[in-house]
């Protein structure tokens, strides 16, 4: 474990700390039922659309695709760029995301015969490498697809994760790299898909509602007794 990026001395300390956080969040918020999607393909499309935008906006775009009856590989590929961009406009960056959706659907059709399950049958390392090779898919999007779509145990890191773990005192800085923080977490938790799913969803919920970026509501926080930010 890199001592310059985590404040806790031993692996046992980190493991206990993480499980304690999860238990407190779960007791406070309950199950989150994330990712909200009717199919795995819808989940993947949602992950691509969710880049740099709120989930409420993504939901509007997904509803538009469903209403137009094109939420499928062929549906997206056969729709003109102009029409697709208009449908996903609520998700922002719609021209760029139109290209990303079509590129990904073309990739699935070309490399996996339009069978998402064939892609998801790859082991985690291979699947991650393949996803990251696609233009516009970064670590967070790839890992979200692996965890919530392929249902394989990988921990998704985002700005909420960095904020929470910095304030709680697990890491030295919110500027920690994605892979460094992921490595800390995964080295100290038993890899379980459902658990990783719930933990990440709880972190997002907590940071949106309580541990906000500018004005955290510390007096209502279930983690305040173990939080450096609150105690200092």
UniProtKB/TrEMBL annotation:
Keywords per UniProt: 4Fe-4S, Iron, Iron-sulfur, Metal-binding
InterPro entries: DNA_glycosylase, HhH-GPD_domain, HhH_base_excis_C
Full protein name: HhH-GPD family protein
Superkingdom per UniProt: Bacteria
CDD domains named in the record: ENDO3c
SMART domains linked: ENDO3c
One GO process term, biological-process aspect: base-excision repair
UniProt domain HhH-GPD: residue ranges: 49-209
A GO molecular-function annotation: metal ion binding
């Amino acid at each position: 474990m890199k001592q310059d990026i985590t404040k806790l001395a031993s692996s046992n300390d980190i493991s206990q700390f993480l499980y304690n956080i999860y238990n407190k969040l779960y007791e406070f918020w309950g199950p989150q039922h994330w990712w909200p999607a009717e199919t795995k393909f819808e989940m993947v499309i949602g992950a691509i659309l969710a880049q740099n935008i709120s989930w409420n906006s993504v939901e509007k775009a997904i509803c538009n695709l469903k209403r137009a009856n094109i939420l499928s590989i062929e549906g997206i590929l056969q729709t003109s760029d102009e029409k697709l961009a208009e449908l996903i406009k609520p998700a922002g960056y719609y021209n760029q995301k139109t290209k990303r959706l079509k590129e990904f659907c073309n990739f699935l059709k070309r490399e996996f015969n339009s069978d998402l399950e064939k892609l998801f049958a790859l082991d985690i390392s291979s699947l991650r490498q393949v996803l990251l090779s696609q233009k516009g898919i970064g670590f967070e999007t790839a890992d979200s697809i692996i965890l919530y779509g392929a249902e394989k145990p990988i921990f998704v890191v985002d700005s909420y994760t960095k904020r929470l773990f910095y304030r709680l005192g697990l890491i030295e800085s919110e500027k920690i790299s994605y892979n460094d923080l992921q490595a800390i977490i995964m080295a100290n938790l038993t890899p379980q898909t459902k658990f990783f799913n719930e933990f990440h969803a709880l972190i997002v919920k907590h940071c949106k509602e309580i541990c906000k970026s500018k004005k955290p509501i510390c007096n209502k926080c279930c983690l305040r007794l173990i939080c450096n930010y609150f105690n200092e």
